[in-house]
Amino acid sequence: MATKTDDLVEVSREEIGYAVQVIEGEETGNGFKLNKEGLKEVLFHPDVENRPVVVVSVAGAFRKGKSFLLDFMLRYLKQDSDREWMTDKEESLTGFSWKSGSKPDTNGILMWSKPFIRVIPTTGEEVAILLMDTQGAFDTKSTVKQNATIFALSTMLSSIQIYNLMSQIQENDLQHLQLFTEYARLASDYVREKPFQSLLFLVRDWYHIEDHSYGESGGKDYLDGLLEVHYGQQEELSITRQHITFCFDNIRSYLMPHPGMKVAVGGKEFSGQLKHIDNDFVVHLKELMPTILDPVNLVVKRINEAPITGKKLSHYVESYVKIFQAGELPEPKSMLEATAEANHLAAKDDSLDSYKRTMDDVSYMNPMKTSKQQQIFVFSRYVVLALPS
Predict the structure, then answer these.
(1) What is the pTM of this model?
(2) What is the crossing angle of helices 144-157 and 171-180, to 10°?
(3) Nearest CA among 300, 265, 297 for reference residue 126
């Protein structure tokens, strides 16, 4: 029997939010499965279902601080507009599970249960911000196929993909990114738009400050030189850079300092308190977060130029997962077929909603019971909108 104390704890958990497993990797490292209940819990939340979503994902190699970063995003988003969000030096860092050490801590794909509602200044539109944590790539158990699948899915479903890297951007990092987004490049034969939206190369523990300073400005100079395609360059290197540039609407980089030895070593005493983190790192966290999460910088998830609501995003998740679960990485055409299926389901939802609203109007205007002929006439106006072309 639940007590009053239990109820208070449950309410508190709901208000604060918690990580929800949306996609779970199998222990064999070969595949994964969709958690439909978890997906529904996040994307059919009353504040998410019919609102456009902003999906921020962090991906990259395992044990490189992805969940640690996401928890600072949570702290930033929970802030009150009239107070500083990084003043409490003793506060532990909570949210997505993280820990120091060499063993992986995140499995599959998780999303934060609580959305954060913001208003886009230019349009006045309310959007729901969702945070996504991903399983680290290249651990000792995951196969290349599973790594590619998790990274590809998170990139396809997010509007802002943060590629979390250590020390510098190496050529193999670019090649992995090319592999993980290869479907989008090939699928572009069928669509004009770039397949993905925003990509942020977040370089942690940047040491080469004599070449490029910390922050966004130094990151821009560094990335511009790295992605440059020039005469005499080896063809393989040029193709990799052209592919990445082609796949994203916007690409930028941010260079972060090392957080300090207390963070690197960890231990029982460290739970993310600011007093243990180097000041340079804290300063640049304060600078980085608004570039991603301030309302003026939010990137709404769009597919085929249309803003995507939580309900519509659920269709895309299920469609993409189906084809990846087929056992082999899909052909580009099957990826397009999955997108078409999700588009059809989303259109059907829109048509059904319009039908219901119209029937409500008809019933309201006519107090007598709506006739079968009226119902058929109204439905026929909307069902055609949901038919595949």
Answers:
(1) 0.81
(2) 70
(3) 300
Backbone angles phi, psi at 95, to 5 degrees: 135, -120
- Residue 226's pLDDT is 96
Q: Are 59 and 151 in contact (CB under 8 A)?
A: yes
Share of the chain above pLDDT 70, in %: 73
The amino acid at 78: K
Contact 117, 127 (CB under 8 A): yes
Structure tokens at 141: 């158990």
Compute CA 237 distance to the chain's CA centroid, rounded to the nearest angstrom: 28
Distance of alpha carbon 387 from alpha carbon 372, whole angstroms: 22
Distances (CA, A) of 182 to 25, 202, 213: 22, 21, 32
- Three-state secondary structure call for residue 134: strand
Residue 68 is inside which H or E element, if any? helix 66-78
Handedness of CA 337, 306, 57, 192 (dihedral sign): positive
What is d(CA 327, CA 315) in angstroms, rounded to the nearest whole number? 20
- CA–chain centroid gap for 269, Å, is 31
Q: Is the pLDDT of residue 5 over 50?
A: no
